[in-house]
Amino acid sequence: MKKDDKKQQYRVNEQIRVSEVRIVGEGSESVVLPTYKALQLAESKGVDLVEISPNANPPACRLIDYSKFLYQQKKKQKEIKAKQVKVDVKEIRFGPQTDDHDYNFKLKHAQGFLSDGDKVKAYVFFRGRSILFKEQGEVLLLRFAADLEDYGKVESMPVLEGKRMTMFIAPKKTGTPKKAESTTGTVAVEAPVRKAPQQKAKKEYTGPKVEGEDFDI
After folding, report:
1. Residue 145: half-sphere exposure toward Cβ, Cα within 13 Å
2. Is pTM beyond 0.70 here?
3. C-alpha to C-alpha distance for 94 and 57, rounded to whole angstroms
4. Which residue from 140, 148, 138, 185 is spatially nearest to 169, judged by alpha carbons?
5. CATH of domain 13-82
6. Cα–Cα distance measured from residue 17 to residue 119, given in angstroms and rounded to the nearest whole number
7. Which CATH superfamily is domain 89-171 in?
8. Three-state secondary-structure class, residue 58
9. Is the peptide bond before 58 cis (omega within 30 degrees of 0)?
10. Can you tell me the mean pLDDT for 153-174?
11. Do 135 and 142 touch, CB atoms closer than 8 A?
12. Does 201 score more than 60 pLDDT?
């Protein structure tokens, strides 16, 4: 067995100083043995006695190569880390009197963000006297949420704080469409680029050449 670093998390072999241990395997079977007998068993199998649960009564151990055990633990940690989903928050800003073109443009981006698993923070910024249109801003955000119901769910309703009215929309975990048909208030699907028709190549005439005439077939 190779010596591990100073921050060794598990006690191994002679480091285990309790009187008896419980040997556990990959299945549900286990057996309680005096520690010295467990050490003898590990030595006969050419493996290590690794304490995996020191707080159990008696402490639980495995008969396994310690290097292999550490590798398995690191692999599990990587798998757990890979399953953890990092959620970014994307901001979408509106004015209280946003026109339809700007609205649909921002709606399309919000659909993309939610499809990618990001959270959307949509807010209406009231500049100067435009705060008089706060009801209009709330209607706009609620319309925005309704148009995104296939992509996300409202996490918090519109709230006015200072000059901003903010609403959060979280992505749906399942069933989130990647694209939608082009209709009012949904994602606009770009038309495919048409290629110019290729002209047929002229065939070269291979017959007898006649003076003063050109042949194109």
Report:
1. 20
2. no
3. 62
4. 148
5. 3.10.20.80
6. 51
7. Translation initiation factor 3 (IF-3), C-terminal domain (3.30.110.10)
8. coil
9. yes
10. 87
11. no
12. no
